[in-house]
Amino acid sequence: MNTNEFARALKTYVESQPSKSGNGDAESLLELLFDAYVDFNGFDRETIRKDFHDLYAAMNGKTTQEIDEIIYPVCTLCWDHEKAGFQEGVKVGIRLAQEANIV
């Protein structure tokens, strides 16, 4: 997806979502941007599938409940770190654009 396609997709996505701004959540617009990014850039890539396969293989012999007790916190941790990294990347990009007098 090129930049123009992403911008159009982001605009469509934002227009279809109720505004979260004004609810006191300073990060809400970044969260909306991250949600759009996730929707348009699927994360079910071969590398991730292989990593999950390796994780499940490492838990061979564990019960389904034991696996769930490991998988759920791991997925939450990965999601939270990915989201935080995305949001910080947007902030850095904005600051870089400001310092370069682009914005």
Largest sheet: none
| Binned strand content | under 5%
Q: How many separate helices?
A: 4
- Would you tell me the structural class of the helices and strands? mainly alpha
Number of strands: 0
> Roughly how many Å is the radius of gyration?
18 Å
Q: How does the overall form come out from the CA principal axes?
A: elongated
Order of helical and strand elements: HHHH
The separation of the N and C termini measures 24 Å
Flag low-confidence runs.
21-26
| Helix content percent band | over 70%
Q: How would you state the average pLDDT, rounded?
A: 80
Task: Write up this protein.
- The structure is a single chain.
- This protein is 74% helix and 0% strand.
- The chain is elongated, with a radius of gyration of 18 Å.
- By secondary structure, the protein is mainly α.
- The protein is built from 4 helices and no strands.
- It has helices spanning 3-16, 28-40, 46-58, 64-99.
